[in-house]
Amino acid sequence: MNASNLTINSTTTLWEAYAVPLLFWYCLMVLLCVLGTLSSLAVLLAILASRKLRAGSGALIANFLVGITVQCAVFLPLFTASVAGVPLSCPATFFPYFLLNKVISLADMMIGINRFIAICFPYRYSLFTTARVLTTMILLPWGVALIYSLFLLLGVSGRFEPLPPWHACGTTFFSAAASFTSTLIGVIVPIGTLGVLFVAMFGVMGVRRWMGGEREGGKDAARMQALRRKRYQSVRMLFVAYVLYSACFMPTQIASSLFSRQFQTDPLLQLLFRAVALLGYATVPRSVIDLYFPILTVNASSAAAPAHLEVASI
Asked: What is the residue range of 238's domain?
């Protein structure tokens, strides 16, 4: 049945019309919610159980994982239930869902900034892991996301309400500027910033590798080369995870914010985008990579002399 010819407003009728694909989608969402919750919770507990991992970037990663864990365990299942026709209060359920989406994106950007400092300026890394700096980097995503989400909750720039065709909770923006601001905060700024930081990290490491190869020698040369290889492998792995995560997360954010009317006309397209976004939370190995990075940082910081020699070789 062509969605464009569908003039039915009843969620029950839509379930009858799309019985097989909807059943498959519902099972997939439940599975991804379980995988996302368990994987994020496992890494979060591992960080909280280790004093070393709680320090530095570990605190930022824990903040990021709290958002993903709550999203996968609570609010994404509620969204799935609303598609199934379960009556829910949109302000009570979609407000925290919308809030956590923004928090997760901005918290990920803060981790990227921390990684950039650790890789490119290791001799200054300790300045960015003080309690004041880490507290600011943890609270800033929550503050920005909360202020913007409250504008929607209070009906200033939009509102949370059931949207056709599924009558599941969603966001209605009152203007194109409000819609673009949502995309700017949740997609363009965090993901764009991470892309720029990764380009800068690869560039700095390339320059150091070239200039270090010209100058280094003696007994520390092998240690320096091993340290640079380890950092390069770490950044490369993080970049792959960033690309996969962006490929999963960006389409839904862009489609729902910039093409909201088109996004709302095709029932199956909505569900497909939601499943792809959840796939980014559940299956992209960001949690494992985020756990690996603080271990690398701890190991690298313990070898203070090689780290400073690498900086001095530029």
From this structure: 9-156+170-312
Q: Is residue 164 part of a domain?
A: no
Q: State the pLDDT at residue 91.
A: 92
Phi, psi of 168, rounded to the nearest 5 degrees:
-85, 160
Q: Residue 136, SS3?
A: helix
Residue 264 is assigned to a structural domain of this protein: yes
In this prediction the pTM is 0.80
The CA-atom distances, in angstroms, between 258 and each of 19, 177, 179, 277 are 29, 10, 7, 16
CB count within 10 Å of CB 152 equals 23
Looking up tokens 């203007």 gives 175
- Does the residue 1 lie in any domain? no
- Burial tier of 294 (Cβ tally within 10 Å: 0-12, 13-18, 19+): buried
Judge whether residue 95 has pLDDT over 90.
yes
Residues 251, 276: contact at Cβ < 8 Å?
yes
User: What residues does 286 pair with on adjacent strands?
Assistant: none
Task: Write out pLDDT tens, residues 161-196.
Answer: 988 777 888 888 999 888 888 888 888 899 899 989
Residue 245 near residue 288, CB atoms below 8 Å? no
In a domain? residue 2: no
Helical H runs in the chain? 11-17, 19-49, 51-54, 57-70, 76-83, 90-120, 131-153, 176-183, 189-215, 221-258, 260-265, 267-282, 286-302, 304-312
